[in-house]
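Project standup — Tuesday

K.O.: blocked on the structure for the chain from last sprint. Re-posting the sequence here as requested.
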Amino acid sequence: MQRTNFSEMACSIARTLDVIGEPWSPLILRDIWVGFSRFEQIQSDLGISRKVLTERLNHLVECGVLERRPYDNRPRYEYVLTEKGTELIDVLMVMVGWGDKWLAGEAGPPVLYRHHACGEISAVDLTCAHCGQPLHAPDVDVLPGPGAAVISGE
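H.V.: unblocked you, prediction finished:
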């Protein structure tokens, strides 16, 4: 099946979805973030087919989210997050917060996150980069930016 190419849309959400918008990619990134760096480890953890995993890993490397590094003399590689990939983990952490709140059920969250700086268990909380106040959908207005699509005829 041919995937829709969102990379040329004048929308940062669409462009991000072009990189990680199919279900396996965020899970692959999660696995690499928590320490599964080799193909066999990721495949075993996710139960994903070799073909699909190969396609996803190649796509994430092409997008600059992962780097492929050889780990022995045979053509075997491990995968590490690039700076671009590490920043995508922040997006996944926001997804974790939503999933923990709305989908975890009575059992509670499946994992907890300890903040290195203070040693406390914490969650991601969006705040304004200028004033530090909470930053959620009702707190913002969406305005056209410098990269907004120009509508012809106007």
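K.O.: great, moving the ticket to review. The chain has a mean pLDDT of 92. The two ends are 37 Å apart (CA to CA).
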